[in-house]
Amino acid sequence: PSVPPPGEENDQPIDRPRPKPLSIRGRPPLHSGFGEAAHGIWPVKMDGNTRGGGHSEALKNYNLGKTLGHGTFGKVMIAEHKLTGQKVAIKILNRHQMEIMEMVEKAKREIKILRLFIDLIHPHIIRVYEVIETPKDIFVVMEYCQNGELLDYIVEKGRLQEDEARRIFQQIISGVEYCHRNMVVHRDLKPENLLLDSKYNVKLVDFGLSNVMHDGHFLKTSCGSLNYAAPELISGNLYAGPEVDVWSCGVILYALLCGRVPFEDDNIPNLIKKIKGRFLYPSKLFI
Question: Which residues are catalytic?
Answer without folding.
Answer: 188
